[in-house]
């Protein structure tokens, strides 16, 4: 798959009803403090893994 076709597929998803629904759900989840805290903890663990492996 070329990068051109990938970008076309992404643009198609973003402009579709399904893409708009996914973005709406994502924004709602991002506004949730519990979800935000879990994501921050996950990111901290992930960045910690990469530094410990070296």
What does this structure look like?
The protein has 54 residues and is mostly helical. It contains three helices and no strands. Helix 1 packs across helix 2. The chain is flat, with a radius of gyration of 16 Å. The model has no long low-confidence stretch (mean pLDDT 86).
Order of helices and strands: HHH
Could you list the spans in which at least 5 consecutive residues all have pLDDT below 50? none
Separate helix tally: 3
Strand content: under 5%
Radius of gyration: 16 Å
How many β strands by DSSP?
Answer: 0
End-to-end separation: 32 Å
Q: How does the helix and strand content classify structurally?
A: mainly alpha
Summarize the SSE layout with pairings.
Layout: H1 3-15, H2 17-31, H3 33-53
Helix pairs in contact: 1-2
Short description:
With 54 residues, the protein is mostly helical. The chain is built from three helices and no strands. The chain has helices at residues 3-15, 17-31, 33-53.
Task: Give a quick set of tags describing it.
54 residues; mainly alpha
């Amino acid at each position: 798959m070329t990068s051109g076709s990938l970008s076309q597929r992404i643009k198609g998803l973003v402009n579709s009803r399904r893409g708009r629904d996914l973005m709406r759900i994502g924004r709602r989840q991002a506004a949730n403090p519990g979800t935000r805290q879990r994501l921050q903890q996950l990111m901290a663990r992930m960045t910690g893994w990469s530094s410990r492996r070296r």
